[in-house]
Write a structure and sequence with these properties.
single chain, 508 residues, Rossmann fold, two-stranded antiparallel ribbon, globular, Bact_transf, transmembrane helix, EPS_sugar_tfrase
Amino acid sequence: MEESVRPSSTVNGTPQHIDLQSIPLPPQRGTGSAAAVGTTSARPPYAAWESRYRAWVIGSDVFTAFALIVMSAFLIDRSDPHDMHALGTAAAFLFGLSVCRAWSPRVLGEGAEEYRTLGRGLVTTAVLVALGGLLFGALAVQPWVFIVVPMISVFMFLQRYALRQVLHRRRRLGECLLPVLAAGSPDTVADLIARTKADPHVGWRVEAVCTYSGAGAERGSGEVEGVPIVGKLDDLAGHVRRGGYRVVAVTADQHWNPKRLQRLAWDLEGTSAEMVVAPMLMEVAGPRLNVSGVLGMPLLRVTAPMFTGGRRLVKEALDRFGSALLLTLVSPLLLAVAVAIKLDDRGPVIYRQRRVGRDGHAFTMLKFRTMVTNADKLKQDLQADNEGAGPLFKMRKDPRITRVGGLLRRYSLDELPQLFNVVSGRMSLVGPRPPLPEETAKYAPDARRRLLVKPGLTGLWQVSGRSDLSWAESIRLDLRYVEDWSLALDLVILWKTFRAVVQGRGAY
């Protein structure tokens, strides 16, 4: 789905050609252009491609929902599409998605938040249909609540994903990006620039920088990571008005204070820019952050991570049911892999290894054997060739890996027996990587927070590079998952895992 710029998708048998090539893009400005120093006229609040993309999302959602509703009216009620069930479901759909802001430009293309708001809108739709049936005496609404709305949800999530892939492809080509003016200390701005370059699918391109001193701005010689410094913090609003930036990213700096930030917010009113302030909290985001007013002050509330409660029970149930279902579906593949391993060197099929689970409790993790039978003894002789990060032992060309094992590792088939660990409750489908006991003995206090939740068959580390990641990056991703876990994030990770496994990225 990610190879062409103008893909074609099919919904209910009807081809839908997504042509983002025809979208008039905002002027593409180089880092040394006149626009970067704030001399061009301001752009409109929303570039043409933003409006076009939002129109595609709304149009595809409405078309799919109404097409399925009309079909269901004939198949379920055997009547014309103007009956009460069809009309009520259509009205509930429009109201539910609108109220939950599933079409807001703020969430379209924004990580798991887009899917989270879409899910809330569809759940609201189902609730409204059920309540409407009770209120108006249309008691035969069960098929609409439990079949039609879930069917709409499946198609709609797939459509949103397809549209997002088109947008992400354009962004990797340097198009459909939001021009950003970053303001803060040179170090924190440099970090922001590096992140936007590493993840262009987010849609930010830092085109100008303001610092406290504005060093080099007047001579046109100052820059941060190749992005020009255009002025001081106090001049920021003027540059935004002249340059038409869409995002003002405020990063950490000792010179920021409440008065200066408030003045900046006032000065940006009426411009096309959205002000984004980094909260300066390590990897805390999503549903844990809430802003509320107390004693006349805006306070950023950071709720504690959810390690227990209703959502965790739902996750536990989905883990058990999902892993049992997957074991049933892949049982022929498990048998084929077991036979291949046995025929390769006549050794044992399953490799059992002690790993550390939730709260530091050890358990036996199951894997298909991919190395020679005396691999643990040979490990000491290979320590000088270790390419792993931190306490991990990894080699790109490990001589202990068998012929069949190399293929299994490339596509992560050796991990499939861990589904039995998930069924037994020792692991989760999604979570931090299960560490070895000798690894945890070397953990710093922050790394030990990984043990607050069950280890996972997959996780952020799996979809972000796997063995190619540094030790610090692996820890950062695992801690981010522990801190910001949600069911929506789990679903996104599971889908990305499928793609990573198929492509064999970072596996050796």
